[in-house]
User: Which sequence fits this backbone?
């Protein structure tokens, strides 16, 4: 067990974070009032109390409903800026943020509204807080590939500001190979690629994300442990998994944090990383996720440092910056453990 100080003091990266999942009940309440929208809740506390889920779908239903309070450019700025302030608090120095365009375009809110808000927050985070970031345009997999292709095309004015495409929403029944053409198109356009797979879906979905979508990382992926051939493949290819422990607990992917397999995966040589997914809905930002592993899985200092280094390694930062940060982590860890 380590002190909270080590988790707090080490510079960290986040690689699996949905910006719509950082909408705190207070901001949801305030924006609903601002736009004179009615919510199916009578107080901020009632919103927070509703965050009990049986599975991924029961969460997604609330998550898409909550995002409906995001209307103008300032709302999107405020949402992302609030997350960057949390990053500062938690000593997150680089973050790769997913956003779901279709959640907004399908209710008449265009790229020209949310992108300027996001880009303003991103630029301000870099200049005022010293936090770097990437943006990952994520397709909703419960919708069609045609809709994903249209969504990619609509993003054209912002291609320079977007680093990667991703795939999220309801996994079961929507395997990665449904999106072969749009991922191939994104690759041609020069975007990196990630996909949620093996959260609720079987190992075959992870294989499909790797083989059909040619991804750089798997989001979640914890069900890989059921397939020894897949495990060997992930280890041999240093394929990163962006694991989200509190999310897995809240969405009943695991029954108890003490049963989470992340440290087993780490010990077997899989490039696992720790992330918060939708922190407002799942009860904690990045440091709380590391803290949960400490409390319930007795994570060692060495395991913690390896997880942090994996995140730098698995990021879209340049090799030079990765090495700079990994050195910094080693230096700080050394000085903290000798004090
Ligand atoms: N899985 C799938 N879709 C999502 C998630 C998730 O964990 N979070 C937000 N959208
Ligand atoms: Zn996710």
Assistant:
């Amino acid at each position: 067990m380590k002190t909270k100080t080590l988790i707090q003091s080490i510079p960290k990266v986040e690689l699996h974070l949905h910006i719509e999942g950082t909408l705190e009940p207070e901001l949801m309440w305030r924006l609903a009032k601002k736009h004179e929208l009615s919510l199916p809740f009578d107080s901020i506390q009632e919103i927070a109390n509703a965050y009990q889920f049986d599975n991924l779908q029961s969460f997604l239903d609330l998550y898409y409903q909550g995002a409906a309070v995001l209307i103008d450019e300032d709302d999107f700025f405020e949402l992302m800026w609030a997350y960057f302030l949390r990053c500062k608090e938690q000593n997150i120095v680089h973050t790769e943020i997913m956003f779901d365009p279709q959640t907004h375009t399908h209710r008449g809110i265009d790229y020209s509204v949310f992108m300027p808000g996001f880009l303003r927050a991103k630029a301000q985070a870099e200049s005022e807080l010293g936090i770097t970031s990437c943006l990952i345009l994520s397709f909703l997999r419960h919708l069609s590939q045609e809709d994903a292709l249209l969504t990619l095309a609509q993003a054209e004015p912002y291609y320079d500001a977007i680093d990667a495409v991703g795939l999220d929403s309801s996994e079961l029944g929507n395997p990665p190979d449904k999106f072969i053409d749009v991922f191939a198109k994104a690759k041609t356009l020069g975007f990196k690629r990630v996909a949620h797979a093996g959260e609720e879906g079987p190992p075959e979905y992870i294989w499909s994300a790797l083989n059909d979508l040619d991804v750089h990382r798997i989001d979640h992926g914890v069900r890989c442990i059921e397939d020894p051939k897949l495990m060997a493949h992930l280890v041999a290819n240093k394929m990163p998994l962006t694991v989200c422990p509190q999310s897995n607990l809240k969405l009943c992917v695991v029954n108890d944090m003490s049963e989470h397999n992340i440290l087993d995966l780490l010990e077997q040589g899989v490039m696992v990383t720790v992330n918060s997914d939708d922190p407002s809905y799942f009860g904690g930002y990045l440091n709380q996720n590391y803290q949960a592993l400490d409390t319930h899985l007795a994570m060692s200092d060495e395991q913690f440092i390896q997880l942090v280094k994996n995140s730098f390694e698995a990021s879209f930062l340049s090799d030079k910056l990765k090495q700079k940060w990994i050195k910094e982590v080693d230096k700080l860890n050394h000085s903290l453990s000798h004090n």
In short: The chain is about 50% helix and 15% strand. The longest helix spans residues 111-129. The radius of gyration is 19 Å. Residues 16, 18, 168, 196, 219, 277 surround zinc ion (ligand 2) (CB under 6 Å).
